[in-house]
Specification:
Spore Coat Polysaccharide Biosynthesis Protein SpsA, Chain A; 11-stranded mixed sheet
């Protein structure tokens, strides 16, 4: 059974100042997302499911619907404020959806096979998709999942802070915890996270972090549904709280409801968080194209 690629593309792009998911960066006008789909196709994926918002549907389909449908079948799913599990209603005053965990739940009816979750605006590299397919082809329990991890030093922006899921891993490469750090930046040749109290916590360069490249099975949807319901109940008075995938996974690990194998990746990762990141991304993709890793047009 070929895995599905679930692409999180409903983000607002507030720090970037626009829809970075559709911004061209390749020599043939490709977006970062085009490279992820190219890598997924050659690794053996069988379908794409997009998570988007209704207000960006026209822009997305204009850019991707025709050209990507020639590569893999596409399904479209919408993440909206009112898109909630049965019996759950949004609190009065809430104005936006609940983050990446909520987004993944939207695809529960569209996916029955193993699937990989990625961000639309991150370049993960060929190796990540190959490792995912290799993992799915191994014997495992229904609640054994995986995550492709990157070294923190290779995931920063030169132009501002970033959010990363900082991982703790045991000797057998099982994930022990993943904690979302939302203000990570390099200062004076060291990496720090600015905590809620504005204090700074130093992080090692080779710290493994989640870049939202998750390998799940269909069983994850039921677990995520339960987690999300608890999250909504516990945050009924918090109108800005978001349910992140890493926090859901961390809860499942700590309650012994799931295991997550960490697949370290030395391959290339880069992304666009700020406008200033774009020239660097264009340059790195150009070098990969010159090296023959990707065709000029596809």
């Amino acid at each position: 059974m070929k895995p599905t690629l679930l692409i999180l593309a409903a983000g607002m792009g507030s720090r970037y100042g626009g829809l970075k998911q559709i911004d061209p960066v390749g020599p043939g006008g490709q977006t970062i997302l085009d490279y992820s789909v190219f890598d997924a196709k050659r690794a053996g994926f069988g379908k794409i499911v997009f998570i988007i918002r209704k207000d960006i549907e026209a822009d997305f389909k204009m850019v991707f619907a025709d050209r990507l449908s020639r590569t893999l079948p596409i399904e479209w799913v919408f993440q909206e404020l009112e898109s909630l599990p049965e019996g759950v209603t949004p609190p009065v005053g809430r104005t936006k959806p609940w983050g990446t965990g909520h987004a993944v739940l939207m695809a529960a009816k569209n996916i029955k096979e193993p699937f990989v979750v990625i961000n639309a605006d991150d370049f993960y590299g060929r190796e990540a998709f190959e490792k995912a397919v290799e993992y799915f082809n191994t014997e495992q329990y229904d609640t054994d999942y995986a995550m492709v991890a990157y070294e923190l030093k290779n995931t920063l922006s030169d132009f501002g802070s970033v959010s990363r899921g900082v991982c703790t891993v045991d000797k057998d490469q099982w994930l022990e915890s993943v904690v979302e750090h939302t203000k990570i930046a390099r200062e004076n040749n060291r990496i720090f996270n600015t905590e809620h109290d504005e204090s700074k916590k130093a992080l090692d360069d080779d710290t493994l972090v989640s870049m939202n490249f998750w390998c799940f099975k269909h069983s994850f949807f039921n677990q995520l549904d339960s987690h999300f319901r608890r999250f909504i109940a516990e945050n009924s008075n918090n109108l800005t709280a978001e349910c992140y995938i890493p926090s859901a996974v961390d809860t499942l690990i700590k309650s012994n409801e799931a295991r997550v194998k960490v697949l370290p990746n030395k391959g290339q990762w880069f992304g666009i968080t700020y406008k200033q990141d774009k020239p660097l991304v264009i340059n790195r993709i150009a070098k990969l194209t010159e090296a023959g890793e990707y065709p000029v047009k596809f």
